[in-house]
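User: I'm putting together a teaching handout on how multi-component assemblies are represented. Below are the sequence lines for each component of a complex, exactly as they appear in our records. Could you produce the 3D structure of the whole assembly as structure tokens, so the students can see both representations side by side? Please keep the chain order the same as the input.
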Amino acid sequence: MRVLITAGGTSERIDDVRAITNFSTGRLGSLVADAYSQLADVDVTLISAKRSLKPSNPAIRIIEVESVQELIMEVTNQLEQTSFDIVVHSMAVSDYYLTGTASQEALISRLGKNKSVLEALNQAFDPISSEPSKLSSQTETMYFQLQQTPKVISLIKQLQPGACLVGFKLLVDISEKHLVKVAKELMAKNDCDFVLANDKTRISGDEHLGYLINRQGEFTTYTSKQAIAQGIIEQTMKGRTT
Amino acid sequence: MRVLITAGGTSERIDDVRAITNFSTGRLGSLVADAYSQLADVDVTLISAKRSLKPSNPAIRIIEVESVQELIMEVTNQLEQTSFDIVVHSMAVSDYYLTGTASQEALISRLGKNKSVLEALNQAFDPISSEPSKLSSQTETMYFQLQQTPKVISLIKQLQPGACLVGFKLLVDISEKHLVKVAKELMAKNDCDFVLANDKTRISGDEHLGYLINRQGEFTTYTSKQAIAQGIIEQTMKGRTT
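Assistant: Of course. Below is the structure of the complete assembly, with chains in the same order as your input.
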């Protein structure tokens, strides 16, 4: 049996010394990877952010990525080359990547041209360089322009419709009812078999309130990272023999 | 004798799950802290980024910070309360912090009002919330507005004119001549006694090309983090007895 797990937070490059990062430590994903790897005849591949925590079992194959672009490439590679029974997509993926920067001074001069404001605004940004670079810090006010990244989770069932997919939804400071509603929307949109819904304000070290929701809309509540990892394994392994 | 060291990279909050971070690992700063702490009668205080590497000597007092605002508070506290003989400011400090965000849709509607474009633009951003929050990812194009942060290094000699100050300058892919020139400007502007000048493209693990420049404009070249740490200690300790 083969399991693919993504964990940690992606990081979108601004220049050679700065990035926009997602805070995820990758701890829950690495616990999930370790727990699957202890089952007999289960091969685990983990796509992990460079700076995130790693599982302890050396039998787990680890692929490191930084940006959403690298993540998409590796997820696609894996799903095209190998047939996975279960995919747990716990990585915190940047919603945006940086496309341009402009100083206030540059914006003033560029927006002065005779174009519609928005068109002028969008043309007023300098593209992000892939060459070694560091943004100048000479201007007092700086503007960043960001574009939405493609949704990695939508790729998974497109490439492997037969895999059991566990999606993750993290929101901040909302009611259980609203969280479950949003998780169900993620499930429907991306054809997930399970969604682990959690709220940042209810996570602190190993204490971690999580709702694992199945296709029937039923959910089980867990209160620690270890319990969430075990719950994901029990529910995704139901009826399987390894 | 008392030494204050700053190390690691600051991180400017976007919302509860994202930040703009500086890549610094804090490794050079923690080597410097360890090296000073091995001298007799030297007390070392390290102000370190939360996610950065820590020194091995448990006698070093460690204060953790995340944002530039927290760094300023702690540096000010330390320098007001304690007299330091040497201050090594190696922390990679964010040049900008985020002041507002706007979706393209919000900008279109807000810029449509009858104001001058730049005034409208600056009023078109929603302020960053200090409440628990996560930016919505519903818009395709997003804009960030950032303001320059105060220069932490300029505080040090203002608060303790008698301390020996080591500043750091990191640039990317420039000539040795230009790097030394920029380092001398930093020295003059902030009344540094030494500046360690380095180029991101010449740093790879322990290999680390650094020029330690003194007030006379003379510089010594080092090629590893360990050698830079030892060089800083030798040069700042010259003529001192502990």
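A couple of points students might notice: The longest strand of chain B covers residues 194-204. Chain B has a mean pLDDT of 90.
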